Amino acid sequence: MFSFDQILAITFTLFAVIDIVGSIPVLISLKEKLGHIDSGKATIASGFLMVLFLLVGEPFLNLLSVDVHSFAVAGSIVIFVIGLEMILGVEFFKSEKDTKTGSLIPIAFPLIAGSGTLTTIMSLKANYEETNILAGILLNLVIIYVVLRSLSWIERMLGKAGLMVVRKFFGVILLAIAVKIFKTNLNM
């Protein structure tokens, strides 16, 4: 049964964890490197991963003998490397000739549907109905698509100097988030 209150709580929770607005500098940097981000494919792939983890996430990880905390630590390492790229201007993720792949990795996973998002989705199942979680995921996918489609406009608004400042700042933020995810899940 749909509950507006549940959908609202789930939507805001996922919005905060996904942090698509905070990821704008990373996405612009990846767009420059890849030449193009396929907004539709990245959104669909992210949505697929989120729904898949909602339905079979924990059993799948158990099948692979991987616990949720190990999954989160692995995702935090990838996020850490992306943050280093932003701050140091060094390229760790090499550009693929196939930009279709670049829209999926590292954009759909781990930036949008990363370990934090997927773990959050699995934990939401303890308190909310699956139909409401699906609605919250769908609303976030709409926001993700709009942000991805608007990257060129956002880039023009910031300008080169503004983009560089924002990229360095959010690189540090991304490093801090990665360290927090790593530390939190390493203690478990």
Automatic annotation (TrEMBL):
UniProt cross-references to InterPro entries, sorted A to Z: Multi_antbiot-R_MarC
Localisation per UniProt entry: Cell inner membrane; Cell membrane
Membrane topology: Multi-pass membrane protein
Residues passing through the membrane, by range: 6-30, 42-64, 70-90, 102-121, 133-151, 163-182
Keywords: Cell membrane, Membrane, Transmembrane, Transmembrane helix
One Pfam family matching this protein: MarC
GO cellular component: plasma membrane
Protein family per UniProt: Belongs to the UPF0056 (MarC) family.
Protein name: UPF0056 inner membrane protein
Organism: Chitinophaga pinensis (strain ATCC 43595 / DSM 2588 / LMG 13176 / NBRC 15968 / NCIMB 11800 / UQM 2034)
